[in-house]
Amino acid sequence: MARQPKNPFHPGEILLEEFLEPARMTQAALAERLGWTAARLNELIKGKRGISAASALDLADALGTSPKLWMNLQATYDLDKAEKARRVA
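^ that's the sequence the OP posted. Answer follows.
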């Protein structure tokens, strides 16, 4: 199995710390740019919601990234959670 980060971050945390904060952009401003509700964006940032293919496309368009970045972040996070749950079971 390929090496994975020891504790991958949720994509919402990456969005906040690597995109919003450096750009000094508010969640409300990004939500408007994305065409999302502020609640939807906040749920993503808080880790209560994951990245779907559609949201990956929205984020890529709004932030000048690739949709694969967001999908890979989510997949890495999900795999880590599943591996930890399997070890506990």
